[in-house]
Structures are given as structure tokens and as C-alpha cells.
Fold Galactonate dehydratase.
Amino acid sequence: MGKIAVLEYFRVPPRWLFVKVVDEAGNFGWGEASLEGHTQAVEGCLDAWSEKYRGMDADDIEQIWQMSWRGGFYRGGPVLMSALSGIDIALWDLKARKLNIPIYQLLGGRVRNKIQVYSWVGGDRPHDVTAQAQARIDQGFHAVKMNATEGVGWLDSPSMIDSVVERLKAVKALGIDCALDFHGRLHKPMAKQLAKALEEHRPLFIEEPLLSENISAIKELASLVSCPIALGERLYNRWDVKPFLEAGCVDILQPDICHIGGISEMKRIAAMCETYDVALAPHCPLGPIALAANIQIDTASPSFTIQEMSLGMHYNNTGQDLATYISNPDVWAVKDGYIDILTGPGLGIEVDEVRVRELSKNAKAWTIPTFEGPGGELREW
């Protein structure tokens, strides 16, 4: 038993939001509530909840989750669920630390000994992908992902399709698997052409070939190509996930542990994936706390297949990376396409609180860029 005494958050570069929960006995846990481009909105929610949950028993993780979900009348959405994610992850970390065990031991124990991983090449506007892919190979990765395109018009030039195919071929020629993230940038007239053109070159998967609000179009696309279809970062709870599983139009589900309601909801969704024979590959171009939380789920989930990690990601150009805010960065060492499971207590990472507090001072919120076409029209980022 230990009542929540303090709930703090820290905005840190490059674009992450960390949460710390402390109980009256001094036990603590760390979470992450990063919601790219909407940091202030999540912070506002955490401000409101910090008073609401002070005095509640930190061990009652499910009760706090249900209070956050059901206790405010309006439910779901990226802002509320990201705030809840940060708190939920911190509570799991706190509880497991008190027991001096990894979180995965509270989730049923491990079903694997290491975690398959992939990282990014190419940036928001993909370029120099061959050299970057070789650098990933040198780091120990066997798989990478890159944005398929820049901004794309509703109906664009066929030459755009040719350039995507050539980039994929160039990366695969190095002997590494490659996934393509459409990033919801394409609309149906271009998405079905590009997916068909890529099919013979066998990408590891195609991600968000269409925006997730277009479930009927995604279902149609799934019937046209054999490329595995992945999506899920813009789904925010199990009820959002359910229609995609029922429609049979997703092969790889990519919920984001910082947007889906934390460890509690991710574990439930992992079980749903297993029921529908869908692979789990958590979305995580985020910070070390989010990655560590995902690894706890990955370790205990039979449906898990591969984990995204932001090591050396293109937006980490402010000087901060996965190792910046923890004192045991060796846990991120990639060996033959895998990282080891995290065996330390709680999340298995040791957050450098001094560094967090230092870099959070006057940290600016990251702003989502906009893409425009030649006519000044807005395109999907």
C-alpha cells in the first residue's frame, strides 16, 4: 500500500514528455506520455489529473486506469489516452520496482529471451537511404524502415512510384529487410498503385498505406496485394482496434504504448492480436521510457514479432537520443538484429533524473511540420 503523493511531468528534447509518480513512502516510477506536436495539450490533462489521483493507492493500477477512462464522461482520443499512458506506465514501473522484479513478471512472465528490432533510415523526405541503411547494418540491425514518399498529391505522377521502388531495391540490395511507411500520406488513387508496384519487391510490410479512418479502403487494398499491411499508431484503445481485426484488413498491428493507454491497454490488445492471428509490432519512434515499456509487453506476448526503436532517428538532431536520459544505455546494444530483454526491476532502465530536470528547463514543444503541394494545397505529413 502506498498513496500517490506526487505526479510530475518533464518536457525534454527532442520531442518527448516524461512522467514521474512518487508515493508517500518515496517509491517512484517513470512513464512517458509523448504525443508528437501536442505536448501542451497532454500537459494540461496531466495538470488536471495530478490533483485527482493524489491520495489514491499507487498499487491500484487498473482502478486508476478505469477512473481515467470512465470517470470523465468523454473517452479516448490521442490527448486523454497519451496522458493516461504516461501515468499507467509509471505506476507499473513503481509497483515492479517495489517488488524488485521486471514488469513482465507481473504480466505472466517471459515467452522469449531477446527482442527483434528495427530502426529508421531516410528522414521525413527520404534521401541517402543506402548509406544510412549500411550504417544500420554496421550497428547490428537486420531490418529498417523508411518513409516511402514525401508529400503526395491525391493523384500524382507515376514517376513518384518509380522512385519509391528504386529506393526499396537499393536498400534491399545491401542484404537487409526493409519496411515502407506510407505515413497516411497517400490517398486511394496512388496507394493502390504503389502497393501493387512494391509487391514483387517484397517489403517487410507497408505501414499506414491509407489513413485509419478509411477502413473500407484499407480493406479493399488488403484484397489487392499480398504485402503485409501494418497500422495502429493512430488508434487509441481496444475499441478503435476492434473493427480492423474484425475486418481482417491488418496483418501487423502497431499500437503506440504512449497513445493507447499504456502497458495495461497494450497487454489487452496483444491478446486480441493473438485471437485474430495478427502480429504485434509496437510503434515507438519515441523515447527510452516508451521503448522500455514496449519491451516489457514484447517479452510477455506470444503475438509480438518486431520492435521499432528510435536509435539514431533522423529527428534526434538536437543531440539527444535513447541513451541521453538513462544511466544504463548498454541495454540498447543491438546484436545480430536483436536486443536483450530488460532484466532490471520495473522498466529495466535507470532514468537519469538530474539530466531530465536539467534538459527540461525551457524545453520547447515540438511543432508538427506541414507539407504543401505546388498549388499551395495542404498535403498529409
Notes: The chain is about 40% helix and 15% strand. Residues 78-99 form the longest helix (22 residues).
